[in-house]
Amino acid sequence: MIAAIKAAAVEAFGGDAVVRLFGSRVDDQARGGDIDLHIEASPDRADIHHEVRFRTALWKALDEEQLDVVVEARGRPQRWIDRAAHREGIVL
Fold first, then answer.
1. Cβ-based burial of 76 (10 A; exposed 0-12, middle 13-18, buried ≥19)
2. Is the pTM of this model over 0.85?
3. Are 51 and 19 in contact (CB under 8 A)?
4. Is residue 54's pLDDT more than 90?
């Protein structure tokens, strides 16, 4: 699964994208829940078009519907969700 996520991120956002898993799936004791992914990408790729490409590639690889994706434009002011993902997330 990790390899598919990383490959989809490179395809959609480029090789410099950073993918973090955050939320309930980070805790091995928690069961189920959505897969929460935070993508840190260059500003020219941190848009809905590239997010759709990522989701499409990942869905084809994993057939996973319970997927939440947050995209952060590197170098721009961080939102609360970006700060939480950086603080609590695991870089894949």
1. exposed
2. yes
3. no
4. yes
